[in-house]
Design a protein that fits this description.
Radius of gyration: 20 Å
Bound molecules: zinc ion
Oligomer: single chain
Strand content: under 5%
Order of helices and strands: HHHHHHHH
Mean pLDDT: 87
Number of helices: 8
Length: about 180
């Protein structure tokens, strides 16, 4: 792609907002609101937040009955993040339906693939073609870059650093964000 490419290399706006949301949640962690944490969020909590509060959270987790049928799907932080995510997608879909240039706005937000898909499920019918077009352009651009990288790597030509990380972020959203299916 040329420099007029639709997708400058930046981060998905929804991923970025959700990372900020998680950081805020960890900073103001309240042991009473947490009972179950998934693997990713247990480690995040262990490494962030107030040590006294983290210990309280872990004590509550230890107190869950052994026979309780708990799994990652019940993680309180995943659930809160997912609610925030859905609210943001809804708001963005609403903004798009009021925008005079929806395609430009979608490009500006640089959505990752999971968030692009979620948005597609929420935009009003008349906006679906623009949304599909924007997602399709991003995907085509990434495909082209990865194809070049694969070819160069096989030919032992130095490859652009960082592209695989950005590709992973585009494919599955930012590291540490459990992007859930819309319910
Ligand atoms: Zn995203
Ligand atoms: Zn979680």
């Amino acid at each position: 792609m040329t420099s007029s490419s639709a997708r400058p290399e930046g981060a998905c706006q929804i991923c970025t907002a959700l990372r900020d949301f998680q950081s805020g949640y960890l900073r103001t962690l309240n042991a009473r609101t947490v009972q179950v944490l998934c693997n990713i969020h247990t480690w995040m909590v262990a490494n962030a937040g107030d040590a006294g509060v983290v210990a309280e959270v872990f004590l509550r987790m230890l107190d869950s009955p052994l026979e309780a049928d708990l799994d990652d799907a019940q993680c309180d932080l995943c659930r809160r993040t997912s609610e925030e995510e859905n609210a943001r997608i809804e708001r963005f879909a609403q903004q798009l339906s009021e925008a005079s240039h929806p395609l430009a706005l979608i490009n500006l937000w640089q959505l990752c693939l999971p968030h692009g898909r979620k948005l597609l499920g929420r935009v009003p019918q008349p906006l679906r073609p623009s949304t599909l077009l924007a997602i399709g352009r991003h995907t085509a651009e990434l495909r082209q870059k990865l194809t070049t990288l694969a070819r160069d790597a096989k030919a032992r030509i130095p490859v652009r650093p960082g592209l695989l990380g950005r590709a992973a972020e585009y494919l599955v959203a930012k590291r540490g964000l459990g992007v859930r299916k819309l319910t």
